[in-house]
Amino acid sequence: MSITSVINYKGGVGKTTITANLGAELAARGRRVLLVDLDPQASLTFSFYSAEDWERDLAYEKTILQWYGSVLADEPTDPLHPYVLTPEPANALLPDGGRLDLIASHLQLVDVDLDLAAALGGSRFQHGSPHFLRLHRALADALAADEFAGYDDVLIDCAPNFTMVTRTGIVASDHILTPAKPDYLSTLGIDYLRSKVSELVRDFNRVAAPGPTIDPQYLGVVFTMIQYAGSGPITASRNYMAHTDNLEVPVFRQTIRENKTLFGTAGERRLPAVLVPNANEKVQYELQQLASEFLARTRP
């Protein structure tokens, strides 16, 4: 099982679009995929469920919020697998063997971040806290349960921050993937994000030793929402993409163009764009190629 956190400090960069479509394309190839929504905005969740369905069926007992509540309790942490959902519209379009599951988020997940920080003695996540390893490792330990052994891929949609819930996602991950628009604000924090991940890995491993340590690998940047002029990206986009090359950051060869019509329609149908029948072939091809490159980069 390969676990990947999808994260960028900047919101609105296509992070959820990449997570949903990458997961859907992998499942369309016969793989068993779990999506985990750790973003309080819950955009990934609402890619598969309407707000009404979420409020009626999920909000009060079937989201990651309730599970993190058990992490904070003095009693043993609840198993995570009862919170797994299987969105019907998407799975109806998958071949035999393919599966796309989801652990939904909650708008109040931001409160859990504050509670987790308080449990560690404040917002600086003190390394001396007796709860440091248990809290940071909570999601990793939960995903190590036998019930998750059948998944090929787990994709974690992280919030655009580096607070405690995000940190539990990073600790659980084998890989880090960063979607970014080719503009100033979206690319500004890429190098800083890598430094924060390195800092977390160093601090965690210092406390964990001689026990199990972590070493999430940075897969690279995926450029999204690219505007085209003729046969290629506009000049401004090309310039910012070249700037990222100068940072010596790994960059995916495949990029994803902007297509508000396709992605908007997909959201209304509760389907990732890559599964929408008779949709824009160029965009779907790009998403399929991204999945191929992702698999090549994550294979041992």
Could you walk me through the main structural features you see in this protein, from its secondary elements to its overall organization?
It is a single chain. 44% of the residues lie in helices and 13% in strands. The chain is of the alpha/beta class and 300 residues long. It has one domain: Rossmann fold. Strands 3-4-2-5-1-6-7 form a seven-stranded mixed β-sheet, with helices on both faces. Strands 8-9 form a two-stranded antiparallel sheet. A hairpin with a 2-residue loop joins strand 8 and strand 9. Helix 1 packs across helix 14 and helix 4 packs parallel to helix 6. The termini are close together.
User: What sort of overall outline do the alpha carbons produce when their principal axes are compared?
Assistant: globular
Q: What is the residue-averaged pLDDT?
A: 88
Number of domains: 1
| Helical content (DSSP H or I, runs of 4+) | 40-55%
Task: State the secondary-structure class.
Answer: alpha/beta
How do the strands line up in the largest sheet?
3-4-2-5-1-6-7
CATH fold group: Rossmann fold
Compressed to H and E, one letter per element, the order equals: EHEHHHEHEHHHEHEHHEEEHHH
Gap between N and C termini, in Å?
11 Å
Report the count of strand segments.
Answer: 9
CATH class: Alpha Beta
Rg computed from alpha carbons, rounded to a whole number of angstroms: 19 Å
Write the CATH homologous superfamily: P-loop containing nucleotide triphosphate hydrolases
User: Which regions contain 5 or more consecutive residues with pLDDT less than 50?
Assistant: none
Number of helices: 14
